[in-house]
Amino acid sequence: MHIGTARTALFNWLYARARGGKFLLRIEDTDRARSTPEATQGILDGMDWLGLDYDGEAISQFARAARHKEVAEVMLASGAAYKCFATQDEIEAFREEARANSASTLYQSPWRDADAAQHPDAPFSVRVKAPREGVTVIHDQVQGDVTIRNDQLDDMIVLRSDGTPTYMLAVVVDDHDMGVTHVIRGDDHLNNAARQIPIYTAMGWPLPVYAHIPLIFGPDGKKMSKRHGATGVKEYQAMGYPSSGMRNYLARLGWSHGDDEFFSDAQAKEWFDLDGVNKSPARFDTKKLENICGQHLAVMDDDDILGEVEGYLAAAKHPALTAEQKTQLVSALPYVKGASKTYPQLIEKAHFALTQRPLDLDEKAQKQLTDVSNGILKELTPHLQSGSWDREALEGAINAVCEAREIGFGKVAGPLRPALAGRAVTPSVLDMMLVLGREESLARIADFAAMCPSA
């Protein structure tokens, strides 16, 4: 499930949910080589991670092949479609000759108006009879009225020579049978709408409302692809982006509501309308994504963050948190989530709460193993052993050492950081001590002091 697919699904979800409609999920698995169980599960997992709930069960398009074939046969019987006995070699020979003569390669089957008596006893495909004269107008909610000359349309195949229906037929039949009223999809399908309309016409079915949205481009202005980095939704979960931030960013990618950049799901549902969708392609910007995700992390409920952290660790194939680590992480969240943009950043900042004694010191932390650090920590310890264990009391204890040594707060925080976290770069020392509690904080300080040389 790629980012473009996810954005399209999100737009459909927002549009349906805001209007009390139904949001349906169909797995278009007619391409049997690509439609593996793993690929289908990837779509379902991506929808689940993004929080895009759908109504009813997911529908397999392949499972409805008999119904698609039935419609093709109805069209054949009514004269809206015809049997084509042209072979692949004949079609390719026609196109090679057309290319050599700089002519149109649009195949015009000689069997379109052939008498049934002329039909050979041979395999055939079924082609729709597309209009040859005039124009087809697509009334699109995003692109406006799009006019396509009918002489540019081919008699597309709806049933292959092996009797299997094509995707182009299956999509139309399924949309009709599922009661789809609005089709919101990428504008690379715009020409497909013109090719599919003859099926609706032939069957006497009402057309859905079309809204073809622009594609997503990379920072270089070219269609999003793997050369720009990650493109799959699951890759972004494995990189640790919060799903609410991804929803917010994708909603804003090609759609706008004034100058609003950061908004909730409820606001997106209230505001979203097709009028706000831009016609031009949107550019994917990782920095903007991270900025939005950081804003969402700052306001998310701690329980929601914990659940998403567990999902991130699983997606990234990292070890799961122990029960004790989960408890400690929740305790640390109020102090670390406001400064994090992704879950890897959040976990790094919460490292002090997730690790256990004896701490492994990183390279910068080891530089604090000095006699000066030893002296500061030993002088601080008595101030921490009694009295209240709150921010004011802890700040007072550190300030007492600062005054006695005539040094700044940072000079005391210098050895305290590696003592409490094993790292030189950490959250506030006061925050860490509040999370760790008196007993654990003093034990870590004692461990670190014992590693320092004496004065």
From TrEMBL:
Keyword Transcription regulation attributed: no
Location of this chain's protein in the cell: Cytoplasm
Keyword hit for Zinc: no
One example GO MF annotation: tRNA binding
UniProt keyword list: Aminoacyl-tRNA synthetase, ATP-binding, Cytoplasm, Ligase, Nucleotide-binding, Protein biosynthesis
GO CC terms, sorted: cytosol
Residue window of motif 'KMSKS' region: 223-227
Residues annotated as domain Aminoacyl-tRNA synthetase class I anticodon-binding: 317-447
Main location: cytoplasm
Pfam families assigned to the protein according to its UniProt record, in alphabetical order: Anticodon_2 (PF19269), tRNA-synt_1c (PF00749)
Subunit record text: Monomer.
Family affiliation: Belongs to the class-I aminoacyl-tRNA synthetase family. Glutamate--tRNA ligase type 1 subfamily.
Protein known as: Glutamate--tRNA ligase
Gene: gltX
